[in-house]
Amino acid sequence: MIVQKHVLNYLYQIVTERPDKEAYSDGTETLTFRQVYDRCRSIGSYLHIKGIYKKPVVIFMQRSPREVTAFFGTVAGGDFYVPIDEEMPAGRIQLILDNVQSPLVICDGTTAEKAKAFDLKGGEIVLYDDIIRTEPEAGALEEIHQRAIDTDPIYIVFTSGSTGVPKGVAACHRSVIDYIEQLSEVLAFNGETVFGSQTPLYFDACLKELYPTIKFGATTYLIPKSCFSFPVALVEYLNAHKINTICWVVSALTMVSAFDTFQTIKPEYLHTVAFGSEVFPIKQFRRWREALPEATFTNLYGPTECTGMCCYYRVNREFAEDEVIPIGHPFENREILLLTADGRLAGEGEEGEICVRGTALTLGYYNDPVRTAQAFVQNPLNRAYPELIYRTGDIGRYNEEGELVFVSRRDYQIKHMGHRIELGEIEVNVDMLPEIRMSACIYDTKKGKIVLYYVGDVSEKDLTVTLKTKLPRYMLPNRIFRIESMPLTANGKIDRITLKRRYEDV
């Protein structure tokens, strides 16, 4: 039996079957599997010639099909890619460069000059258009490929740290392959799948499209960010490119449904909709389901430290507006441990921290052993041999159906007026109102105030009156602000840090 140990085996197989099929496109530039393969080998050969092996290689390019080939080429050279983007704050980019100290920064014509403004720690700037002209060295690439083992890292993506210092999550062949195999089975990807990718390429969320594309010979469209500011134009883009599968953050989906887009236009080809990263307001979810009655909808859950998503729930029943769609059950080859503060398994209906064990766990935080040891810990239920689990910091519980339900982030739980409150519960009640498109709560710990921001067609005064009929007194927001649009992170999630800063400036 041949054991799959290298992610590029997907590419090396599919190029023999579908060399001329479109692999990646942004609607302007399109690369076939043959072109992806050829550029991958040229980049890998360039790294070999430079003597760069088992090193982090920074990819500083605009989001494009070419950037995807830079990722694969780095892996072909026996290295691991570190994506950064010009939309990142300059301070964050510098912290990443300080951490990885890469010998090479691959840029395009737009980013090369910008890269010179940073302290590259001795790293050399090279142009993508130059290195893809490198003549492939077949023998060297084959040797590098054969020497690789499945625990070798293939990428480092940086998540936000509570101290303000980003954490570089290092993932390996084994965890990525396991994730792609399980996700593909759950969502039924195949060679006819046409993905519409929403996420920036410096997040692990893009794994859901990039690697299944080379596994099945599917096609991925990198949807321009500008489309997500104009819902009708976004759906027109989906239809123009016959996109049938999307895996988006909830706020991107809500942005479409909340502005009555489906009264004007509906996605004509979508049959698979996956969502995650946030709780999907039932009111908005119903609008999607009504617009696409034949489509499958799947809630995905998982932290970056567990290689993308680790739980899923295929929506198969109706939910009341005050209910939360479960995150369901773990993918195969993973186990969820719901642990209480004293390290035991939570009982029926009892809340606990969601902890994950299995192949999905990444290698930890790059050049950060202290924070790695804090999050990747010995399984408290196993004292017989070393076994790491990842503590997500998320609180969950099992419902009467035996399905895992996300309750909140540990840091979204507050103590207010003597009561423990989930800020998400307030948001659920606000989102149920027909006039509300989107809402978010933050907590002013210094003054002990619950603060609500919302987008909708109701005044702050009228909303206050309505909420008094829906929430107990101790859960009522102390300050309510109506805003024109909800700030979002680069990945499309609600940007609560920006909301906190905005409140501090009031």
Mean pLDDT level: 92
Q: Tell me the number of helical segments per DSSP (H or I, 4 or more residues long).
A: 16
Mass-distribution shape: globular
Estimated share of beta-strand residues: 25-35%
Task: Give the CA-CA distance, first to last residue.
Answer: 64 Å
Structural class, from helix and strand content? alpha/beta
How many strand segments?
26
| Percent range of helical residues | 25-40%
Rg, Cα atoms, Å: 23 Å
Q: How are strands sequenced across the largest beta sheet?
A: 2-1-10-9-11-12-13-14-15
Q: State the oligomer.
A: single chain
Ranges where pLDDT stays below 50 over 5 or more residues in a row are none
Strand count, sense and barrel status of the largest sheet are: 9 strands, mixed
